[in-house]
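Forwarding these from the shared drive since the link keeps breaking.
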Amino acid sequence: MDWGEADRLLALYTRERGKLRAVAKGARRIKSRKAGHLEPFTRVTLQLARGREMPIVTQAETVDAYLPLRETLVKTGFAAYVVEMLDRFTYEDETENYAIYHLLTETLGRIASEPDAWVAVRYYEVQLLGLLGFRPRLFECANCGDPIRAVDQFFAPGAGGVLCPRCGVNLPGAWPVTVNALKFFRHFQRSDYKGAQRAQPGPEVRSELEALIQRYITYLLERTLNSPGFLRQINK
């Protein structure tokens, strides 16, 4: 966002210090040498100096611009969603988290390079929730502990995962989930990305799983994200 007369305030997710904010002095000036390296969705190497209120960017060099993310509104929307989700779930605490950092950079690369980024985005959601401590229970009932069988179930965010039909029926706040949507949810949770790519759900299952994860994220954040609405608009 704009800051002062010619500066820019940046939100960064770093490998060594997690999320932080920094000021890029003069980045809005036409002749600024840093401006081209400080675009959204860009992986950069930065040098930061201590400032009175927050760090100041003294040098910037692009590592990966992920240029295809800017070629279509769909790819731009997916990239915006990925970073918005991370921004809403994390705080500025200067704690390193290599796993989240690598998940973020790998996902941006996958969205940029793959014709259909649906699997990459769903995999990111499921894996990020796990890394943040919100991994839902999908293999046994979150209430009674019985193994989940191959029938339609319920999902209860307040209980922390899936409920069997006996525990979930008529329970306020429990959402029905089909056996097929749950199958792919579990697949993304326990697979590496190469394994996740083998998932080829049909349109109905895609829509159901996407809506289920979105509702879970909204429950956890107690608010909706902005970018999913944008994606729905451009995909009409």
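-- next protein --
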Amino acid sequence: MRYSQLFGKTQRQVPKDEVSKNAQLLLRGGFIDKLMAGSYSLLPLGFRVVKKIEQIVREEMNGTGAQEILMPLLHPKSIWNETGRWDSAKEVMYQFKKRDKEFALSFTHEEILLDLVRKHIRTHRDFPVKLYHFSTKFRNELRAKSGVLRGREFLMKDLYSAHTTQKDLDKYYFEVADSYMKVFDRVGLKAIQVEAAGGVFTKEHTHEFQVLCESGEDEIIYCPGGDYAQNVEIAEAKEGQQCVLGHGPLLKAKAIEVGNIFRFGIVYSEKMGVSFTDEAGKKKFVYLGSYGIGLTRLMGTLVELFNDERGIIWPKTVSPFDVHLVHIEDSGTEVWAKEVYEKLEKAGIDVLWDDREDVSAGEKFADADLIGIPVRLVVSKKVGEGNVEVKKRDGDQLEISTPDKLIKEFKS
């Protein structure tokens, strides 16, 4: 991709109305555009990052046996009335009336999933059901002040599972928990599985996946040895209390929630009449689980954690491009740069080539640091024809290499 043709360029000024690091850097880097508080457009760079995250999540969800679908975002009042959440969750939902009918924009999809199950599933032989989708969620967020970490609309992966027994639900619940930990590891995050309250979703305890971060809005109490972690809202232990397994004192820390999982049991299926016939011919209600990861929220978390005074530092698995190619305008270097660009692209390496004319080398380097692609390549007379200067975004060391050597390293 030629940077001159890319929609959305870098900005020098920090947006005055944004206080969060993720919003400041994503806006300045040309990854997102702000429409209003809590509502952002994904520009090409940001969209590429989110699609990388999405594919990692998809692979792990498919690994649990789940199937991908797509459910509607516009919901009739009647389906939310079946569980009583039209009233109990009205502070979170966007509800409106058109002519004589009332609707809501999706803030979650438990009711919609159960409606699918009762239409298509009849016997115990059809279970378990494991379905997920990637879609926009709408939530009436009162504190939309943390960039893409707390939006009024955002992209989310939500997975739902339906089972014939609590035992089978529990088994899959912890299988998904393991898959979530794999997702976070693959995108470069060290997550902690934390016991938490169910909020507007359930009265039962649930599990969140938290990433330690000074700018996080959550607080957790956790054991450094990994055997205990609870959200402060429900924590039974206190900071400084000794771990019973001898791992030392419990710690209290700020964190960002990057995922959550819920076990609803038969509460919603009873209310909606979602049942099946067991082996003995008896009618029983379905056990429901729900599992969510916010994709745009995950992108914001990565920016909050991986940055320096110059800009973003993307983990390579989710970076919008593999390398950022800069050529310093000397006679003939554009031809050299084009040759490098085409050779790398042909080898399957995604390249963002800063091909702008009449822009100083210093400005190009500053933009490369702000955008944060893991590897910067420079073509110049000083480096020499057929060579490239290589610098990693998270380091200062400069090396001279060749396109062939780089291709070999990327493929290894």
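The chain has a mean pLDDT of 94. Residues 92 and 140 are 5 Å apart (CA to CA).

- D.
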